[in-house]
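Page header: ASSEMBLY MODEL / two components / 608 residues total.
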Amino acid sequence: MEKFELHILGCGSALPTTRHFSTSQVVNLREKLYMIDCGEGTQLQLRKSRLKFSRLNHIFISHLHGDHCFGLPGLISTFGLLGRTADLHIYSPKGLQEIMGPMLSFFCNGLSYQVIFHEFETKQPSVIYEDRSVTVTTIPLKHRIPCCGFLFEEKALPNHIIREMVDFYQVPVYELNRIKNGADYVTPGGEVIPNSRLTRPSDPPKKYAYCSDTIYKKGIVEQIAGVDLLFHEATFAQSEAARAKETYHTTAEQAALIARDAKVKKLIIGHFSARYEDENILLKEASAVFPETILAKETLCVSL
Amino acid sequence: MEKFELHILGCGSALPTTRHFSTSQVVNLREKLYMIDCGEGTQLQLRKSRLKFSRLNHIFISHLHGDHCFGLPGLISTFGLLGRTADLHIYSPKGLQEIMGPMLSFFCNGLSYQVIFHEFETKQPSVIYEDRSVTVTTIPLKHRIPCCGFLFEEKALPNHIIREMVDFYQVPVYELNRIKNGADYVTPGGEVIPNSRLTRPSDPPKKYAYCSDTIYKKGIVEQIAGVDLLFHEATFAQSEAARAKETYHTTAEQAALIARDAKVKKLIIGHFSARYEDENILLKEASAVFPETILAKETLCVSL
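Prediction written out in full:
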């Protein structure tokens, strides 16, 4: 099975605490790393995670609140000190480049690599990144400022060749790639060997959805239906439901309702308000609605 | 004795490691806090230190390298979220306000308090701050960009009244403040009681000098002579003396030579290069020249 892991670097909310860093995560998909959000201290947490800095080329910023992007100048600067040469792509709602530009051009002057900013609209889902392993689509959320989550959809791997059958039919090596990708084999004698006899399907591709920060928004259920893992913010417990609505955040119970309605396989909640010294109250409330819930935690790694 | 403590929040250098945060310290002088430098993650370390955020009104930035100031946006933003109302004063070499301005005006829009930037020249020592407890003077250093250390000089406290003598001479209460400040007492009968019989001197005022980042610069010895505590950067061991010179940093041995020549009471070294997994080599080299040396360490608190 190909690697598809989620690493939590930080899962606190706006106010840092002694237990939580502000938001950042890394998706490790087949040894390529994709960062989601980059709060202050992300580079420290990235180093602790032992993930390889050089495998990270894409950073997705959900929205322009400080606790989701104040770690960028330090990360960019450190990559420069380490002699990075590969381009670094940063995807975000409009404005990030203008806002961070003066800091970056002063402190990261003469970088050994390029930082390339990409802006996305936040009203409609749109594919903002694609490579041979993954497609990343925005999930429009509703927060105090323009904000999107991200849907990571793994691409199907080619089928696995069944070595014994290929040997049996004496399939030439140059035909193997076509067969992996679904073609039938025609023998020199004209016999058609159906692909299904020569290959077994690879593992079904997986999906990860990241939804933070947002008010309880049922509208996202359709887009994230059936994902293998959903990260949803759960800033507050139900007793603070009014406060959640007022500040455009979600309660743990509401996050679980989204997970249940979207029939996801697993829910991980985070973006905890600093007021909770013990997040088990959030876990309890969410699990009552959707039992397959876990709490995010710094250094936690979840395999999909 | 009045409180005069140094809290180390971070003592790494430009590249963060799993063991060190980038540079930041807090001087606690009679329960007023003064921050020196503010690298990424400072607000997290400040919270861990349990020092009271509300007692911090002044931040001194030695120079405009990211590892000495990338923590400012997060700190300023958090103070706002906590509802701070007192002005926050930031002292630095020229340019900080222009560089951070766009980020602050976007992310910290509508702050409940004022951030006031003060610029200082870096060529000559100058008093940049003074209140009734302390005077802060710049210590011109020599780094790749304009850079100053800071000399914190405590102001003398009034003498202590000797209760028994004051009772003996039946000194009226309204005379006590004058006597604390050095006046003699004249009895109703005209007898002059010298101040020295009525008071004991308070503890001699103390001095703390912070010197980072800098190439080995003997010129500072005179200004910091006799301080109670000297923090001096010691980025490298002696084997990297050439690299230290090239990058305008100091070796541990050189830091100790400064301490010895300045006849300081105690030396604390920090700003360790990420290459040292164990800084005891730096301690050993410094101690050989100046035995009263200690290693900086996150969460360390030194009383002067």
